Amino acid sequence: MKKLLLVSVMASLIIANTAIAQTPAKDERMHWWREARFGMFIHWGVYAQLAGVYDGHVQQKSGAEWIMNLNKIPVADYQAVAKQFNPVKYDADEWVRMAKEAGMKYIVITAKHHDGFALFKTSASKWNIVDATPYGKDLLKPLAAACKKYGVKLGFYYSQAQDWNNAGGAVSRKKAADGWARPDSAAIDAYTLAHNGHWDPAQTTSTFDEYINRVAVPEVKDLLTNYGDVAVLWWDTPTDMTVEDAQKLQALLKLQPNIITNDRLKRPDFPGDTKSPEQRIPKPSEMDGIDWETCMTMNGTWGYRASDHNFKSTETLIHNLCDIASKGGNYLLNVGPKADGTFPEESVTRLKEIGEWMKVNGEAIYATKRSPLPLVDWGRCTEKQEGTNNILYLEVFNWPKDGKLIVPAVPNKVISAKIIGSDKKCSVKSQGSTVELTLPETAPNTYASVIKLVVSGNVVDATAK
Ligand code: H79
């Protein structure tokens, strides 16, 4: 047992060292990402055509990008859906402009999700936008061009292991969360149990190893070769991956020496650069000294589900962004475009409103560091160094009714206090290590009002550890 452990520790050291030898220092690679704080996730593919409806059944819950697996749709039937996928209204320039105006600094798009459908031309498989749909054009090429034009970084999500259409791909065995099952579900259930999750014989005409060599490796090579700079490779669900499989994919990353990857290639030997909490914001102490990014849906699904209008409010989304920044993380906020190539109306409105807030208050988010303050009940705090001074951005969610805002654990001399985007006065009184601000009666911003407090010297970290 001890020997095994030693071998595995040595193996991870070798892996880590190779990564360091091939790429610039991590701090250098991570620089833009640590300043960016806010990005757009895009989940798009053939599932958008179904929009959460299969065979008359309307998916009531969760991810519509899982519809093929949840409903055990036969491979041939799912591939027939692609014959209708024709996103003639797709305008990559418009998408990137919307991300940019929302204040997002990078985009990560599902180049291939678990259904195996490639949004790009590849010779590794016919199951791609050019060969399998009437649209017939690469979707990532114009996106890469628009990202370059607007100075937005482009990243690719790639489901390296799960692939429900390309033979040999892995399958995670899941049932519909809303309890629905096909009439033949008992037989299908038995079949999936006996076939490592696969429900269609067409999925097993090849081995997982062959799938990695035939599909995943060449497709990732295509992605890292044909689209200019790729800022992020976002792996997902390492189902059935071996260390050897992961090494083959990891080796391709040298094609993009500055690329940043998450921790989902294969656990635990391939930690990547960033941790990736999904649909949750970690506790302040959980991610100390770690680069992390919370990915989250605006409603209840990643891929477009026509019946889901249950969107988070703009206020919640802005509060989430502040919360994440105050804990030192990034927010990767999802949009699930429709099959015609347009964003859902609810997403467009929210992106616009977030953008208006960011235009005024963005300095409280970009290039800031986690809060040095203990938890406060009025909102969140981010921090930035400015020469020998320290800027505390106080994002006030609950505007004080009595006009007094208490900032604890700041014994430093206060240099100035200003409400961002407002001419109204804000006076300051320091008492020991407490700063008391006297604020105007009403909050200047409906979502979160930011006060920029400049103090002399460093604010000592007083967060609960
Ligand atoms: O791409 C998004 C998800 O589809 C993917 N990761 C994010 C970024 C993901 N793959 N697997 N998982 C998340 C974990 C498993 C989730 C499941 Fe379910 C629970 C599958 C079936 C039940 C969520 C709920 C997806 C479908 C229903």
Describe this structure in words.
- This protein has 465 residues and is α/β, with parallel strands linked by helices.
- The chain folds into 2 domains: 2-364, TIM Barrel (Alpha-Beta Barrel), CATH 3.20.20; 379-456, Golgi alpha-mannosidase II (Immunoglobulin-like, Sandwich).
- Helix content is 30%, strand content 18%.
- The chain contains 13 helices and 16 strands.
- The chain has a 7-stranded parallel sheet with strand order 7-6-5-4-1-9-8, sandwiched between helices. Strands 10-11-16-13 form a 4-stranded antiparallel sheet.
- Helix 6 (92-101) crosses helix 8, helix 10 packs parallel to helix 11 and helix 12 (314-326) crosses helix 13.
- The longest helix is centred in the first third of the chain and has 21 residues, at 2-22.
- It is elongated and about 75 Å long.
- The two termini are 34 Å apart.
- The chain binds ligand H79.
Number of domains: 2
Indicate the radius of gyration in whole angstroms.
24 Å
Structural class: alpha/beta
Q: Give the integer mean of the pLDDT values.
A: 94
Determine the strand fraction and express it as a percent band: 15-25%
Backbone shape:
elongated
**CATH fold assignment of the largest domain:** TIM Barrel
Q: Supply the CATH class of the largest domain.
A: Alpha Beta
What is the level-2 CATH architecture name of the largest domain?
Answer: Alpha-Beta Barrel
Biggest sheet character: 7 strands, parallel
Total E-strand runs: 16
What is the tally of helical segments?
A: 13
- Low-confidence runs: 1-21
Main β-sheet, spatial strand arrangement? 7-6-5-4-1-9-8
Run of helices and strands: HHEHEEHHHEHHEHHEHEEHEHEEEEEEE
Name of the CATH homologous superfamily of the largest domain: Glycosidases
Bound molecules: ligand H79
